[in-house]
Specification:
single chain, alpha/beta, Rossmann fold, 26% strand, disordered N terminus, binds adenosine-5'-triphosphate, binds magnesium ion
Length: 333
């Protein structure tokens, strides 16, 4: 059992390696992550494409076994369970929402929502009224008999949210839940999450590129190349991650500096530890390496366009591309 009773999820030093026979070899997707989520807490995970967000979510929700480390869900260590026990724990505790709603195409909205309960052995005539109630609550009461292909993207996502809620989960893991929606529908779905967060005791872990989604979370974890590099406080503006940022030193002693911090520091180089104490570290650049950030031939600036999708940053200080989520590199001016 976990020592903190109100902790719904805890991960200790999880690593994940995707094994591959291909030339580029294995991919280390997660590099020693610790996560703790309390009952009713909403936490966002932000980070560029390929940083390991989906991998993390799957490991935390028991859809995938991490290569190393342990995950406790509601005080039970998942890595020690048999397949059957794991399915039961997952069914009782956690629900997933993905970018595309993943509805079963041959079932109507009502039966899609009722399905997790029926899976648990609840009779359809008991599960359906509860499904209808949730659809009503999410403004989809009139569309219960619509088939997924007849529903718009936003409607499908509402059905997926109703389906996630029907088992009264303690934790909802959502991977880019508004990623496939237009801005207006996305806002509606977000409003729904906000209301759910206020009204129920359910905890959220949301992967997002969307700054409005991150804004209702109590904190955001910033992931880069499989490591948490920083944590952000309430109402974080993920367009400007430098606000309210706490850097993270991981178990291996590694600190990865976010690009804007590296930029302010004057770029990469060698540093001398001039003072070191418990909870305190002072770094000073070794003289010969000193580079000028704001002027001179070595000046580094944030690139004006996203290298991945060509998005024009147009003078903004954003660190992540609002279009594709890629991190914004620094270039020589
Ligand atoms: N099934 C797989 N086999 C091999 N490598 C994988 C697999 N799935 C993901 N990866 C790699 O693991 C790393 C992390 O991938 P992941 O999907 O977790 O990133 P992400 O942060 O969710 O990205 P995105 O924002 O694009 O969804 C990437 O380098 C990716 O290429
Ligand atoms: Mg992903």
């Amino acid at each position: 059992m976990s020592d903190k009773p109100n902790e719904i999820l805890r991960a200790n030093s999880i690593y994940h390696v995707y094994e591959s026979n291909a030339e580029d070899g294995n991919v280390v997707a997660l590099r020693g992550l610790n996560v703790s989520i309390h009952e009713g807490e909403a936490v966002a995970v932000v980070g560029p494409s390929g940083s390991g967000k989906s991998t993390l979510l799957k490991c935390l929700g028991g859809l995938m076994k991490p290569s190393a480390g342990s995950v406790e869900l509601a005080g039970t260590r998942m890595t020690r369970l048999t397949g059957k026990q794991l399915v039961k724990l997952r069914q009782d505790t956690v629900s997933f929402i993905f970018q595309d709603s993943n509805l079963l195409p041959h079932l109507n909205a009502l039966d899609n929502v009722a399905q997790p309960l029926i899976h648990q052995g609840v009779l359809a005539r008991k599960a359906r009224p509860k499904a209808q109630e949730l659809l009503d609550k999410l403004g989809m009461g009139e569309r219960s008999y619509g088939m997924p292909e007849e529903l718009s993207g936003g409607e499908q996502q509402r059905v997926a949210i109703a389906r996630a809620l029907i088992t009264d989960p303690k934790l909802i893991l959502a991977d880019e839940p508004t990623g496939a929606l237009d801005p207006i529908t996305s806002r509606e779905v977000l409003q729904l999450f906000k209301t759910l967060h206020k009204e129920s005791e359910v905890a959220f872990l949301l992967v997002t590129h969307n700054r409005e989604v991150a804004s209702f979370c109590e904190r955001s974890l910033e992931l880069r190349e499989g490591r948490f590099i920083a944590q952000h406080g309430t109402d974080v503006d993920i367009g400007d991650l430098s606000d309210s940022r706490e850097l993270i030193v991981d178990d291996t002693g590694t600190i990865t500096l976010p690009p804007d911090v590296l930029l302010s520091l004057g770029g990469p180089g060698r540093f001398e530890m001039s003072e070191i104490d418990r909870d305190y570290l002072h770094l000073e650049r070794v003289d010969e390496d000193k580079v000028s950030v704001s002027s001179g031939t070595n000046a580094m600036v944030l690139s004006s366009h996203c290298p991945a999708c060509k998005y024009d940053y147009a003078g903004s200080e954003d660190q992540l591309c609002p279009e594709c989520g890629s991190s914004r590199p620094m270039i020589q001016s």
